[in-house]
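Pilot study result, target chain (473 residues):
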Amino acid sequence: MSETAPQILPVILSGGTGTRLWPLSREGYPKQFWPLASDRPMLTETAARAEGPGFLPPMVVCNEAHRFLVAEQLRGRGARIVLEPAGRNSAPAIAAAALLAEEAGPSTILWIMSADSAISDLPALHRALAAAAPAATAGRIVTFGMRPTAPETGYGYIEAGAELPGLPGVQATARFVEKPDAARAAEFVAGGRHLWNSGMFVATAATLLSELERHEPALLAIVRRAVDGAKRDMDFVRLDAEAFAAAPSISIDYAVMERTQHAAVVPASIGWSDIGSWAAMWEISGKDAAGNATTGPVELVDARNCLVRSEGILTGVVGLEDAVVVVTDDAVLAMHRDRAQDVKKLVDALKAKGRKEATEHRRAYRPWGHYEGLILGERFQVKKIQVRPGAKLSLQKHFHRAEHWVVVSGTAIVRRDAEEILLRENESVYLPLGCVHRMENPGMIPLVLIEVQSGSYLGEDDIVRFEDTYGRA
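Predicted structure:
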């Protein structure tokens, strides 16, 4: 954006779980936090598109459980992080963002986007935004319509109308169309009037709130109560949980865009993909001469047009064509690329059987770093723990387990009841059941240690916190 462009508030929606990219993307650590389209996490990549003159610091609306992941990946960007107590689709999230943005002025222009889309042509994206901003100021809700490159059935479509007077590059919206079948999608592409619905919107806070008041007044009233009752701590805005829970789960498309008289569209070709499936991931990935896209330690023999991704384990593929193979430390997915949309059925089946792999990774992220389970046995468990420089765990105790910590690298300060103990590499400490303890990393490098737990119950909920830097109960 140029220095003369109006100030634009990027609003990043980061509430998705990316189920169709299982086993990499799971509820505990969904796809927006992974580096998929570049070497940066998708959330970080999205925020970087809206930096520099003309842009305000971003506002991110996310699941409360992901708040520290968002804060870490957007460190130093001045992000305002709005926490949803429960997922309620895009309309309540956007309503909350518009109400909060209104505090800076009703004419504030919001650029609303998802945290997990890939865009390869940044100059083209900014040209589309430059066309949309004057239309937003004129009272329009502008969406970006992607010129289709194939008869895609996984996207909704927008039928574009005539160009709006005085707004070059901006067209009226004739109608929104649900995800079509293959035959209808082919007709749309051949006809030239239909565009993929990217889910990006540009509008002023005043216009969004006016149209929500017109079409979904009950929803807006509920979200207004949640915002009025919000608590603010650090960079977080915690929406009132009881109020927000009453909001209906509805998308902004259904709530406003399909009903408003103020919708408009900017047709664009920006190299966009929502990376909504492993097939879409294969489409945007670099490929070898045989059409294979690989990531990690992978060896192929006579494979063609495959996507193979390993997060650490050597993965060999022989004689497969149009296949997807994804390997993590606790799960493997293998399928034909044409069945990419059916991964959600697999995840639903795993959930129905109570398999934690459906939603959780072996590695669990915390505000101070992360841990991962190595061995789980009868009355014992072994974990690897990594603590960021300057970070500390909560002051806590356990009723059912004792712990033994062995420092592998770095330095730890351990509080054990009234003692304070300095641990260096290859040193250890025993924490008997019931003792009050805490660990922190005072050094300049990550602290890595092995934790051995023993006891009658080893669940993560056996924690009584007395003090916590990060505001956890």
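One observation from the pilot: The chain is about 20% helix and 35% strand. A full batch analysis is planned for the follow-on phase.
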